[in-house]
């Protein structure tokens, strides 16, 4: 399995995300689409890699996390507060620890960033 961090400037992400986010309506209660035109969004996509070494590989989407990087006010230098907005692991890949692995990848990514104050999770919609 491989995880890729993307933002709105990643080539092909806009079209891929439009198709991918339709799935959240089926699997996340009270889900809503996000505005990818806002450059504060980050996407962590997990793929299953198929194929043999030395040959062409195929990739299947396993799931993804959307994160919005908020500005952390009241600091002496520019800091940020990433907020996890949506997380989806598709049903064939559930109950294998892949959601935890994806979340841990996200945490490790932000722990390396000295401008991160904390990581929060969005409250579910009512």
How would you characterize the overall build of this protein?
The radius of gyration is 15 Å and the shape is globular. It is built from 3 helices and 5 strands; from the N terminus they run βααβββαβ. By secondary structure, the chain is of the alpha+beta class. Helix content is 21%, strand content 33%. It has a 5-stranded mixed sheet, with helices on one face. The protein has helices at 13-20, 24-27, 98-111, and strands spanning 2-7, 41-50, 58-71, 80-89, 120-121. The longest helix has 14 residues, at 98-111.
Q: Could you outline the blueprint of secondary structure elements for this entry?
A:
Elements: E1 2-7, H1 13-20, H2 24-27, E2 41-50, E3 58-71, E4 80-89, H3 98-111, E5 120-121
Structural class: alpha+beta
Give the H and E element order.
Answer: EHHEEEHE
Largest sheet, strands/sense/barrel:
5 strands, mixed
Give the overall shape, derived from the CA principal axes.
globular
**Spatial order of strands in the largest sheet:** 1-2-3-4-5
Beta-strand proportion:
25-35%
Please report the distance between the alpha carbons of the first and last residues. 34 Å
Radius of gyration: 15 Å
Give me the number of helical elements.
3
- Overall average residue pLDDT: 92
Unreliable sequence segments: none
Helix content: 10-25%
- The number of E-state strands comes to 5
